[in-house]
Structure formats: structure tokens, C-alpha cells
Amino acid sequence: MWFFNKKKAKKKPKFTKIFYATDIHGSEPTFGKFINAGSFYGADVMILGGDITGKLLIPIIRENDECRATIMDVTHTARSDAELKTITDLIEYLGCYHAIISPEQFNHLKTRPNEVDRVFKKKAAERLDRWLKKADLKLRDSPLRCYVTGGNDDDDQDIEIIKANQTEKIIYPEGRVVMIDALHPMVSFGFSNPTPWDTPREVDETRLAEMIEDVVKDIDDFSNVIFNFHCPPKDCTLDLAPKLDTSFDPPRPVTTAGEAVMIGVGSSAIRDAVEKYQPLLMLTGHIHESRGVVKIGRTTIINPGSEYGEGILRGAIVNVQDKEVLSYQMTSG
């Protein structure tokens, strides 16, 4: 008679799978892909980094039975509802907003930037509010939670809309510590150092450092902490962007031998914070073309990049365990 020593199979330690994306800038298809990505990739937690809203308002001028709009220097004309929808779909695909106005209204608004800004903010508010309600409905019967933060391009109105749409599934974590699971505190921060574009939420490095210290002041142990910071650390290679000549309006890229000069445009205050506190993981964005993964000390830093204008969702799957980033994978689709 044979006897077998049956050993219990070792249970694999539990880990948390994060799906992270950022800088979708108002693009309808990109946001639609984001809210489906959590379940598609089998994530436990979804995080949408900052710069959620779009940047441009495109007028569609209706005159008699014709509508026309200039999009990326190309004039599009519509003479039916179907053709008009093609135009509006393209505008939304690119992350822009649109308003259908008469030639008289167009001429009126051309010399009234404050009124244009009011229309822009109204359109931005409507889209963001609709998106958040759509996300909540999508996630209502799912175990997933979605953390939504602002970036430097998202103004006070946008932040208030995110706060107003908080539910059990949609959570605004910025400026505080939240637990994304039993082990991992997350600190979220959407401000950036100054840019050539004078965006709504940028401050100087001294003020950034003060704000970061205020956010992390109650944390004693950073070994499992996740920094969800919109702006990357300076000179970490995930902050490389074209150097701009700000004597022109809009600023122009500086070139040498026909190629753009690239410089690190991240924040020195954020770099100092990462070096000082050495969190487990940092999720960042802001610089669309600097997709990649680097380490500063023990901290793994991930920027999934952004191609929102192409309707592409760039993302990152990150598996975290106790004091360890087990694995990561960049996604695109």
C-alpha cells in the first residue's frame, strides 16, 4: 500500500491590479475606451489621471441650409443632419467642443473672448458631467472603483464637477490620502510647475513643494505609498518635451539641424519629494510623448503617454503587492 504525502499548494499572495490612464483631453472615443478598460483587463482599481477636459472650442457656422466648420485648417461643409453629425463626431473624436452659431453670432464673439470662454466652459462642463454619470452607471454592478483626478489643464469648475459626481464608484482623491486596497495608500496631486501655456493649475516650484508637503504630512511609512501625481519629476526622461521659444505667440519649438531640441520640463519639487520619500510607485502623465517606465531609487515611475487626438487610449496595467511592484504592462488600443 502506497501513502502519499499531500502538501497543500501554496496560495499565491494577493496583489492588486491597477489600470491607469491620463491626459484624455476631452476625446469621446478615448474616454469610452477608458471606462471599458477596467473590466477588459481584469483590473481591481481604475485611475484616471489629470487633464480630462478638452482644449478647443470649434464654431460650426449655420447659414441658410448649410453648416461649415474649420477643423485643423480644413473646412468641412454639411447640408444634411447626417453630414452635420459627421462633423460633430470628428470634433468630439479630437477632444474639442463645438457650438452651432449664426454668422452674426460668430462675428459678435470674435471680439468678445470672455463670452467665448463662457461658451467653452459650458460645453466642457456638460461633457465632463455626462462622462462621469456614464462611468458611474457602467461601474454600478462591478466590483471596480474609479479614482478621477484633475491636471494642470483642468480648472476649478472641472474639479467641482468631479466632486459633485462622486459616488461609491467614482472617487475624487486629490489632496488627500485614500486606501486603494488594504495595503496601499494613494496620494493624488494635479498641479504642475509653470508651463508656456499659462494653464489653470500651475504654480512655482516653491509653492508646489509646500503643497506636496501638506498632502503627505500625515504619512509615516512610504513603503507602500502610491504617488498619483500628474506632473513628472524633472529630468527623469519621462518629462522630455520640445524646448519652446516663448517670444512667439503661440510658442515655437526650438530646432537644431532640423530637429527639435528636447528638454526635461518636469517639476524639481516633485523630484525632490520622490527622492525624499521613496514611494513604492508613482503614476504620472502631463508629457504625452514621454511614454515609459523609470526608477528613481526604489520608486517605479510610469507615464503611459497620450494619443487622445488619434482616439487611442494609452494605459498601464500595474500589479502591486506588499512593498513591491510585481509587474507592469503598457497598453494601447
Walk me through the structure.
With 333 residues, this protein is of the alpha/beta class. The chain has a single domain, classed as Purple Acid Phosphatase, chain A, domain 2. The chain has 7 helices and 22 strands. The chain has helices at residues 28-40, 81-93, 103-110, 113-139, 156-164, 205-216, 268-277; strands spanning 16-21, 45-48, 57-63, 66-71, 74-78, 97-101, 145-148, 170-171, 177-179, 185-189, 226-229, 240-242, 244-245, 252-253, 255-256, 259-260, 262-264, 281-283, 292-296, 299-303, 314-321, 324-332. Strands 8-7-2-1-21-22 form a 6-stranded mixed β-sheet. A 6-stranded mixed β-sheet has the order 9-10-11-18-20-19, covered by helices on one side. A 4-stranded mixed β-sheet has the order 5-4-3-6. A hairpin with a 2-residue loop joins strand 4 and strand 5. The longest helix has 27 residues, at 113-139. It is globular, with a radius of gyration of 22 Å. The mean pLDDT is 95.
